[in-house]
From TrEMBL:
Family to which this protein belongs: Belongs to the ATP-dependent DNA ligase family.
Keyword Ligase: yes
Start and end residues of each ATP-dependent DNA ligase family profile domain: 369-466
Annotated GO biological process: DNA recombination; DNA repair; lagging strand elongation
Entry keywords, A to Z: Ligase
Alphabetized InterPro entries for the sequence: ATP-dep_DNA_ligase, DNA_ligase_ATP-dep_cent
Molecular functions per Gene Ontology: ATP binding; DNA ligase (ATP) activity
Protein's name in the database: ATP-dependent DNA ligase family profile domain-containing protein
UniProt lineage: Bacteria, Pseudomonadati, Caldisericota/Cryosericota group, Caldisericota, Caldisericia
Amino acid sequence: MCDNILKEKIMEEQDFIESDVRLFYEILSHENESEIRLINYGTYPIIKIIKGIEKFVQVAREYSGKRNIYTVLRERKPGLKTSAKAEDIIKLQIIVLDFDPIREKDYPSNDIELKNAIAIATEIAESFNSMGFLKPHIATTGNGAALYFKIEPIQITDDNRYYITELLQTFEQYVRSEYKDLFKKYNVRLDSMYDLPRIGRVIGTKNIKGEEIENRPHRISRFLYVNTPLKNDPELFNFIKSLSKKSYPILEKTSRTSQSNKVQSSLLNEPEQFTGRPVYPMQPIPYFGERLEGNWIWEYKVDGFRLQIIKNGGKIYYFGRRLEKNPDWTDKLNRIIPNESFKNLPDKSMLDAELYSTLGRRGVPSVFANNGKADPIVYVFDVIFYNGRSLEDLPLSKRKEILNSVKFLPPIFILPYFKVENLEEHLKEALSKGFEGIVIKELSSKYEIGSDAPIATQWWRKIKPK
């Protein structure tokens, strides 16, 4: 099936497929205004608040091939004139699984990677169908694939908002665990889509994300399978509820502060215990120009290799981000980074950091080589465990305070952070100093540890030039 799809569908070059855009709008079933975000990475997005299918198609046609076109997937409150936040989502009517090939950073997928993403999406769709659920709609997003489950609409209120978010997150964790062999076989990851105001690509428009090079072209997104006539699955949400440890739909009413938002997101997960083993780290998502609420800081975005540093039993251990590939760099880095650099760090501690080099990103592989030409530079920006205690439920402000109390020795440095005032100026400053961009973070955010994959969070956002 996948070979035929690639031959008949993907290799066909178009910039816009009106029928697929219309179908996508019908699947979304928006009753109120739709929020379209027109994005070129490194520039501020254009945000369109529109009503009705004809206007939706018009905007998609105008910008397809010029900007990446996304829309907020879930139902927004009526009359909202700004970008939706979690509290602005009033209905859950669609659940999306988004499959992204693991590939070279900042480039589109090649044909094999795309074929693998379509293959795993198709197999998982068939699996859900065999379990008695309606087969989800299948689309290629241009670089990967996605499944769209239409469900009986669930009204979202202040009493169940955080619980429903947790249910969606638990469902994604279930998929990662249940189909982990397929994810490994096809070298594909499942992106996080559980955030209520999450955006998704408008199917039928061209994906121009990443630098287009030979064998890695920009492609049109399109539907590969549509389960017609369009129906809502009456049982999928009940199945998702069964995965949860909590009953539905009662939740105690919570205060509307950003701090309570983060605390509520730990309802289904107990704090991690220190084991000395690496964890799946938290990671940022792109910033789309939304209004920032809360207390935000910015940091330089270092273009290096993500690094976890663990001190256990007086020894230092180093691990990369993609744990499915067993990136144990302990022996190599212990040869060139003295343990003395961590003498003031308590035992049973874990740091989140970026490995860089005196020759920049291109010099990082040389750091691992015997007699390499580059020396390591390690920028530490967060602490996950400290003296055996999990810090994941502490706000970022407190974790920064703990981190900055430790005196490291070169080549270990604490990455500085600054209050957000003018993002354009902050980005210019970072680029002028040789960094690839900036990362902005909300100071009350907790650290979210993934169970089967890194967790991408709206509380960390990355901004890079195009």
